Amino acid sequence: MQDRARDSVIQAFKNKQIKFLVNVSVLTTGFDAPHVDLIAILRPTESVALYQQIVGRGLRLHEGKSECVVLDYAGNKFDLFEPQIDDPKPDSDAVPVQVPCPVCDHENNFWGLIDNDGDLIEHYGRRCQGLIESNEGLKQQCDFRYRFKACGYCNAENDIAARQCHQCLELLVDPDKRLQEALKLNDKKVLRCSGMVLESTANKQGKARLKITYFDEDGAELSEIFALQTATQQGAFYHHFTKLHLKDRLRLPQIKPKHPDEAVHLAKHFRHPDFVIASQRQGKKFHQPQWDISEKLFDYEGRYRRAHELG
Q: How many whole angstroms separate alpha carbon 47 and alpha carbon 53?
């Protein structure tokens, strides 16, 4: 159909002037007519995400609507009452969980971990799967990312597997290359991180400080220290630690500690990186090498072994 004719038919359907509407790959995603209470599927698919999108056209809430009938004539074998996820299961204990997006309120289906009370501990989703409408009326995927790789040039959030920043188009350095270069240099130290500890401490003047220590399987350590007294210091802690370490970014607005003791109390909400890279502090006054953490790698999927892996 021509665009104008198609738009006219779709609008007539939304106005309930047309009772049934048949389409081929036109209204499978992003189409919103809340009164729809029957979906007849004639298309076979092996994509769980696409199947959920198709069925989702009938799952909008609407006044006077209490159910949606799904008739699948294509032999798709997905269970609507047990959502499936395309991504490989990341952990033997992982189960499907629903995670709302704080930006568009879309209910995402991700792999996640829950405790004995059924509360979400952690999920493995990267980006919200919801579709939102632009000012031009076009449907596009929500930009919110639960896990991301920050660009070193413009600080934009990119997918953890991205090779180029989507905002400034600068190339993002491959994590394997970063590790390889760091391992070759005498003034660099690489820690295969197996855990971290947050503790409240004090400097020589007695002012409270937050010390975060990262350690590997053999007991080697690297640490960094944050002051949290001023708004500027709290902002630095957010950008250099909180934003990167949060297990669940839905808690982002609530996790803004203003004292080291608060941060220690919130330790369970933070995840440790897979690798920590540090640079040797320059100066002749140091009797022992002093190290400043320069980079932390999360969600690593390269050729180097992570701490919890055998090899």
A: 10
pTM of the model: 0.55
What SS3 state is found at 68? coil
Give bridge partners of residue 291 from the DSSP assignment.
280
Look-up of token digits 């295969």: 192
Alpha carbon distance 144, 141 (integer Å): 9
Whole-angstrom CA distances from 220 to 185, 188, 289 are: 18, 14, 14
User: Which segments of the chain are extended strands (E)?
Assistant: 38-41, 69-72, 95-100, 107-114, 120-123, 131-133, 139-141, 149-150, 157-158, 188-192, 195-202, 208-215, 221-226, 275-280, 291-297
Burial class (CB in 10 A: 0-12, 13-18, 19+), 307: middle
CA distances from 71 to 23, 40, 41, 75, 283 (A): 15, 5, 6, 10, 73
Integer Cα distance of 267 and 246 in angstroms: 10
Mean pLDDT in runs of 10 for the chain (311 residues)? Answer: 90 94 82 92 81 85 92 84 72 86 84 84 86 75 85 80 81 83 89 94 92 92 93 86 81 78 92 92 70 88 83 60
**Angle 131-112-267 from CA coordinates, rounded to 5°:** 110
| Alpha-carbon distances, residue 276 vs 212, 271, 291 (angstroms) | 12, 13, 11
> CA 203 from chain center: how many Å?
35
The number of angstroms, rounded, from the C-alpha of 192 to the middle of its chain's C-alpha atoms is: 22
* Per-position DSSP letters for 179-192, written without gaps between them: HHHHHH-TTEEEEE
